[in-house]
Write a structure and sequence with these properties.
The protein contains 20 helices and no strands. The protein has 539 residues and is mostly helical. It has three domains: 188 residues; 125 residues, Serine Threonine Protein Phosphatase 5, Tetratricopeptide repeat (Alpha Horseshoe), CATH 1.25.40.10; 119 residues, Serine Threonine Protein Phosphatase 5, Tetratricopeptide repeat (Alpha Horseshoe), CATH 1.25.40. Helix 18 runs antiparallel to helix 19.
Length: 539
Amino acid sequence: MADTHSAAGASPVDAKRSVPRSQAASSVAIGNLNDKLGVLDGRLNALETIATDIGERQKAILDRLDTLGSALAGGVDDHREILTRQDERLKALETGSTEAVKRQKAMIDRLGAISAALVSGVDSHRDALMRLMSQGSRDMQELGREIAALEKRQEQVGSATTDVLESLARAAAAADARRVEENLRFEALAGELIDLHRVRDALQREQGRTEALQRRRLDDLARIQALGAERDALEIELQSAASRHRRMVRGWAADVRPVAAASVSHTSENSSEPARVEASSDEPPLVGVDHRQLLADARAAKACRDWPRAREAYAAYVAARPRKASAWKQYGHALKENGDLASAEAAYFRSLALAPADLDTCLHLAHVLKNRGNRELAAEVFSAALKMNPDFGPAKDGLGDLGFAVPEAVANTSPRKIDGKLTRWLFGKRLKLAQAAFSSRQWKTAERRYRSLLLTQPWNARLMIQIGHTLKEQGRLDAAVQMYRKAADQEPLNSDAQLHLGHVAKLAGDLDLARGHYLRSLRYWPQNPDALHELRDQQ
């Protein structure tokens, strides 16, 4: 307004000159204002771009938060309040951005109005323009502050979002750790359950085995008692046969056989089990009897095929020479020819116990077992004979008749005779020295001497058993077991080897294994008194 009054009081020429100058100044001011408006438009566009980018980033953050919230439903519950506050902040930010845009549009409208007013009359509105420019500057400063505040809030939102994401990640890791821990616990519980099922099954199987073992023990006890009764009866019969033979030699009449002997014969004929009784291995021989005369009478009766008299004669000879294996074998022949297969089987078993490597005894015993229906044991005897002599043809034929496969030939050192009287004499002397050391309980010396003898006779199972005795007495149970097993491999039907294997197992505390060996010892010699005694003690 001051400029206008001054122009009115001037001269016309000055007025004319002042008008162009005023128009030029207005043009310059309008140009500057347009430049500023352009800068302001650029800033407004940048602000709109920032606001759009903020909105997109907010939308992406919300989408990501929604995705993470869906995937981690369990963890989102713990942070739901944080997300709610974050949503409120984001909404406030959006509201602030919208207000800023509106204010910018209003400012643009005001600037447009100011520009139109300036075109119509710059001079009259200079003060308003200055005020408007001042107000615009203040608005720009305020807008800058708001933009800075928005950027700061954006940084806060980003930091809060990062914190939320890290918290969600930690929650997810914790959930994974809990899931892994639960899986491990489940696997451990499943393993324990499987172990419990296994233990239960094992206990059931053990209970079944215990019940079966109890039944077997009861059966074995009854069998042992029956064997003891038959043994006593057969001893009476043998003594009676010897007495009758002596009366026959002296001219006495042999009247009637004792009732006990008849009952034993009847039991042997009608029972499916073999006779289990005979004279004890420790029974002393009859004294005052001519052994050679008894044997001659038995052979004469056999040559005449007088089997009843041969049976009586061999019974007397066996009573006089109870440790002679060949006597028991011939007695078994006589009993078999008389049709008494059960007693013949018992006699063959006794002969086999005295001479486990006698192939002829194995052959006759196997045939008697086959005729009595014990095919399994007959096949086992045939197989043992083949193991001792793979070329033993009658054993192969016997296995074929039973329908069993002939085993492959296995190298085995078969027993053979010692050639030469001097060799036998030296062997006897060395054997007596070993026996003397054993009797005086010099176990190491006895072991050394028996091993020296075994080098000259590597097939001799009796020497192996004696070495096992010395090892057992020295407390070397494992070595003793190996030697007893070596003897059992050399003579598969050796009842004595199985008996001592049972003794070693008993010393080691394995009563079940000991019982198995004692039963196998009775399988190869049903009248073995030591095995019967051990089994009675275990009942």
